[in-house]
Amino acid sequence: MFSLKTKKTILNLIAVLLGFTFFGAGMAKLYADHQYFGWIGPTWLIERLEEYQLGFYGQFIALSQIFIGYLLITTRYKLLGSIMLIPMILNILMITISLEWKGTPFVLGGLLFLNFLIIWHYRDFFTPIINEGRSESQPKERQERNWKGHLVWTVGLALQFVSISISFTWIVLAFSTSLIGIIISLLSFRVDKIK
User: Fold this and answer.
1) CA angle at residue 99 from 96 to 105, to 5 degrees?
2) What distance in Å separates the CA atoms of residue 153 and residue 181, rounded to the nearest whole number?
């Protein structure tokens, strides 16, 4: 139906959409005056949870959204990110259902469906995981990655957390730092090709 290149492009676009959704939501919760752009999630969550001495938990949620979203938005670790995103979405879904928010469960259901499309594409990886070792059906060959590429990606992730601190003094520099971090992480694929 679709060529392999088209499938890969569609999966990467889905990963970027999901990644931006959760990465942006987490960054907006932690940025000064919630100035980071995102399209879901209450940016005031941490402040609201602080009323119940749960502010640290709110920060943990935001940091988890940033990390999981970054795994997806940079597409380097989209399988790991999509696996980690399942409990994140389900937890948020339970909260929105409990609080009787009207449209949010449908949006989250759509995001969960998109996430399952990524997981379905990588289903050949699950037999060895479930069997805790080798199995007759080995995963398809994927592009080889090296420690230098992983290191470059990690530097980009670290710049995201640096940008949060910068946002409290200079918002333009904070946005620039975040963008540079994403670009650096995307360059990790090129670093993998260097022998």
Assistant:
1) 25
2) 8
Predicted TM-score (pTM) of the model is 0.87
Answer positive or negative: Cα dihedral of 66, 71, 73, 74.
Answer: positive
> pLDDT (tens digit, 9 = 90+) per residue, 11-63?
999 999 999 999 999 999 999 888 898 888 788 888 888 888 888 988 999 99
Q: Which residues of 53-91 are buried (b: 16+ CB within 10 A; e: fewer)?
A: eeeeebbebbebbbbbbbbbbbbbbbbebbbbbeebbee
Rounded distance, CA 133 to CA 74, Å?
A: 28
CA–CA gap between residue 104 and residue 93 (Å, rounded): 8
Q: Is 195 exposed, middle or buried (0-12, 13-18, 19+ CB in 10 A)?
A: exposed
User: Residue 69 in contact with residue 21, Cβ under 8 Å?
Assistant: yes
For Cα atoms 122, 20, 60, give the angle at the middle one, nearest 5 degrees: 95
Count CB neighbours of 162 within 10 A: 15
Does an H or E element contain 22, and which? helix 4-30
